[in-house]
Amino acid sequence: MTGKGDSRTSLTLLARLRQNPADEGAWRRFVDRYSPKIETWCRHWGLQQADAQDVAQIVLAALVKQMGSFEYRPSGRFRSWLKTVAYRAWCAFQEDRRKRGWGAGDSGVRQLLESLPAREDFIRQLEEECDRELLELAVEAVQTRVEAHTWEAYRLTALQGLAAEDVAAQLDMKPGAVYVAKSKVIKMLREEIERLEQT
What we know:
76% of the residues lie in helices and 0% in strands.
């Protein structure tokens, strides 16, 4: 069973909702899984808890209409799409607030909404954040499956940018072994990301 904190996309759940958008059990699981995420994003974007819950309800209502035609593409990111839907609902919510009068501390949000390039940049950042989230999950899984010196060889070469010869000297390894360790971890990370996208 999937917990509320699980950030992976459930293809089985999406398929159930696509086949039967009126499936109450699937919607309950969907709400349990994604509503807290939507609320967290909205809180991060500056809404109070009650407003974040309102926006989450707006998003879920929009999804009821869209889920029947939604098609998951393995090359795409469901959470990225969901975050974009949530962001647009947040924009609409803020626009409604603006029309009714801005409260204190809204100037940063107003500038964001009034700047189209900033809005497009923000959506790009959302997509990158979803990719980072997947990578973090993959890193957690792979790091526990490789030996410490293998992970360190990968970290120092791939992430720190050190030369294989320097890493070999530092870790008391041969340069060839450093290259093999780096390649092995990269391959495992790619495979793990693919697996996470399919779960």
